Amino acid sequence: xxxxxxxxxxxxxxxxxxxxxxxxxxxxxxxxxxxxxxxxxxxxxxxxxxxxxxxxxxxxxxxxxxxxxxxxxxxxxxxxxxxxxxxxxxxxxxxxxxxxxxxxxxxxxxxxxxxxxxxxxxxxxxxxxxxxxxxxxxxxxxxxxxxxxxxxxxxxxxxxxxxxxxxxxxxxxxxxxxxxxxxxxxxxxxxxxxxxxxxxxxxxxxxxxxxx
Length: 212
Ligand SMILES: Cc1cc2nc3c(=O)[nH]c(=O)nc-3n(C[C@H](O)[C@H](O)[C@H](O)COP(=O)(O)O)c2cc1C
Description:
Bound molecules: flavin mononucleotide
Shape: globular
């Protein structure tokens, strides 16, 4: 099986979200052990913003002739790595109530008219085959539950953006309140790890996963 892990924190592999995502990667490896384990790592912070040619191509009715270069070429490669993955794991912090700019850059490269979605009378229709996407979120404060004191634009935005290209099977796990540190942070980590373990132990999930 092939897992694409997208790391979006500027802290990379040292980040809380990356740490949380490792429990998901390990869970997938256990549940789908028979097929072996091919982990493709992508650091979203290394991606440049889309360029002028890309913006032109997305605004026009057809792609430019000839070999793609710049962002179009980058976009082709990113879409291919996404299409090739059996599972996608996104490790991301919350930045200013939503996704960090690095994750937004990846989205700008993979949500691409004529390549990953079509425009119809009914609206945008995804082209990619659906597959499980797991999102490991880390946030300084709380964004869910009765004690949340800030809006959450991350979860609905990511659902909407990925649904546009056909990816609708999203599952979120989060370590919230990292700014509290100490025992509160440790408790949040343990809760998230328990959520992940319960998710991978659940039999409907296993059936769903093995048929992916
Ligand atoms: C630019 C920036 C914006 C942030 N905005 C928020 C925010 O809106 N809400 C929040 O709870 N935490 C916010 N934080 C805190 C991070 O979400 C928190 O430190 C998180 O644990 C970082 O995860 P990481 O280690 O995976 O990068 C922000 C941090 C940065 C650097």
